[in-house]
């Protein structure tokens, strides 16, 4: 019955993935998938590869872009289920496995994240598999554990190929090995390091060939320092995690980490070190709410170590996720776009792009121009007749053609909607409400990087 329940959740997530328009970031990653590389300015390559596979199966549609996301939850949950047996020896199994999987799937982070496609989607999948491999390695004699150590290293490397925050799980595991005499004396953990590095070679090679652009962009955030706003950033971090985990599950996560301090050193290291890094970062700069997603599979296991009942926490999380699903798909509550992040991100893009295409053709423009990467990507995905020129410098890191044309239509978002609406402004609408408005400007002889079209 439990696995049947997960299968039903997967079907619901696939349905949601099919009916929701793409977010700007998802459209951006779709552009990546049309030009596969070993790395990109913002993230490693794994999300683009997953989208490429999904669109090969289901076409250049929202379902195709997100196809592997909902499906990956099933093998990821299987791995976490068996990791509970290996990493929670003090808790009764299979109950502990069911509880850990249920808690993770009840979080809004996975519930909504599994129906979309971001770098966090493959990241959580590979971290879950790595936890299983680590559990097999630490639960067997050293003579039989070598293969599992090597597999764990490879999976952590693939997690790094999904998102750079995976390095925090690797560091947490390194702390366990260094401070555990039994593990420190084994060859397996040390031999896993070159395997991990080998898995990350494509990303490192791309960065080396592009002046370390991606690593400098992401790593450069660690140097930001605004201590006067620390209380604000810490509050945002706390509030974001309460929201993404849902309140009762967040409480179980906290109690579970405390329990791991006392009786489960491995999970304590894997959970505490990444969170400590995020908390330290929040003293000087904003931590985006989705960054700690890397540690959610660990926290789901740690919560079971506390030995508390999970029924109402899981039910409340599933209810919150279901309400978000309904609001995202049907918008029964007429919330203003400023208070509905799903509609703000996804609402009205196909219709807006088609209207914009009609305006461009009427004015004799042959291409769209956009500096904002999300807007440029949405235009490339949602209309199939006009080329799109990206003018942001990030496009120079693609293997994309630089083209020039006689006349282009520059599109840019405006933050204050004038009344009455001028003729050169077109608004994106969803469920009868204005979401965002954009100004159109005719530009002669534009020069930019041509994005692939959705055809």
From TrEMBL:
The chain crosses the membrane at residues 95-115, 121-138, 166-183, 190-208, 242-261, 266-283, 289-306, 313-335. It is found in: Cell membrane. Residues 42-206 form the Glycosyltransferase RgtA/B/C/D-like domain. Keywords: Cell membrane, Glycosyltransferase, Membrane, Transferase, Transmembrane, Transmembrane helix. Its main location: membrane. It is a multi-pass membrane protein. This is Glycosyltransferase RgtA/B/C/D-like domain-containing protein.
């Amino acid at each position: 019955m439990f696995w049947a329940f997960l299968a039903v959740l997967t079907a619901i997530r696939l349905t949601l993935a099919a009916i929701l328009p793409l977010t700007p970031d998802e459209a951006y990653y779709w552009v990546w998938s049309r030009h596969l590389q070993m790395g990109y300015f913002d993230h490693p390559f794994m999300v683009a590869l997953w989208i490429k596979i999904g669109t090969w199966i289901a076409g250049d549609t929202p379902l195709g872009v997100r196809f592997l996301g909902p499906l990956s939850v099933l093998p990821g949950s299987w791995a976490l289920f068996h990791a509970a047996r290996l990493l929670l020896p003090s808790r009764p199994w299979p109950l502990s496995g069911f509880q850990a999987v249920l808690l993770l799937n009840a979080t809004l982070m996975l519930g909504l994240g599994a129906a979309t496609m971001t770098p966090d989607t493959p990241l959580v999948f590979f971290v879950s598999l790595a936890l299983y491999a680590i559990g097999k390695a630490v639960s067997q004699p050293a003579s039989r554990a070598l293969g599992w150590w090597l597999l764990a290293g490879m999976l952590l490397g693939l997690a790094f190929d999904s998102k750079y925050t995976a390095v925090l799980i690797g560091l947490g595991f390194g702390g366990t090995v260094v401070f555990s005499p039994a593990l420190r004396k084994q060859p397996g953990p040390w031999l896993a390091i070159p395997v991990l590095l080998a898995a990350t070679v494509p990303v490192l090679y791309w960065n080396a060939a592009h002046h370390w652009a991606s690593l400098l962009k992401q790593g450069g955030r660690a140097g930001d320092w605004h201590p006067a706003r620390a209380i604000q950033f810490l509050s945002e971090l706390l509030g974001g995690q309460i929201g993404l985990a849902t309140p009762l599950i967040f409480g179980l996560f906290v109690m579970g980490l405390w329990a791991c301090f006392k009786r489960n050193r491995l999970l304590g290291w894997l959970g505490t070190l990444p969170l400590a890094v995020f908390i330290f970062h929040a003293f000087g700069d904003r931590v985006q709410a989705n960054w700690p997603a890397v540690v959610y599979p660990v926290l789901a296991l740690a919560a079971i170590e506390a030995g508390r009942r999970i029924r109402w926490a899981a039910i409340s999380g599933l209810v919150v996720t279901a309400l978000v699903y309904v609001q995202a798909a049907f918008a029964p509550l007429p919330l203003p776009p400023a208070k509905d992040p799903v509609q703000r991100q996804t609402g009205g893009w196909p219709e807006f792009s088609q209207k914009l295409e009609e305006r461009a053709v009427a004015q004799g423009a042959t291409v769209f121009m956009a500096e904002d990467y999300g807007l440029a990507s949405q235009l490339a995905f949602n209309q199939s007749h006009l080329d799109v020129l990206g003018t942001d410098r990030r496009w120079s890191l693609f293997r994309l053609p630089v083209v020039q044309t006689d006349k282009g239509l520059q599109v840019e978002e405006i933050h204050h909607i004038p009344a009455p609406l001028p003729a050169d402004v077109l608004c994106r609408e969803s469920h009868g409400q204005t979401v965002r408005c954009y100004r159109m400007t005719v530009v002669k002889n534009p020069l930019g990087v041509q994005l692939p079209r959705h055809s």
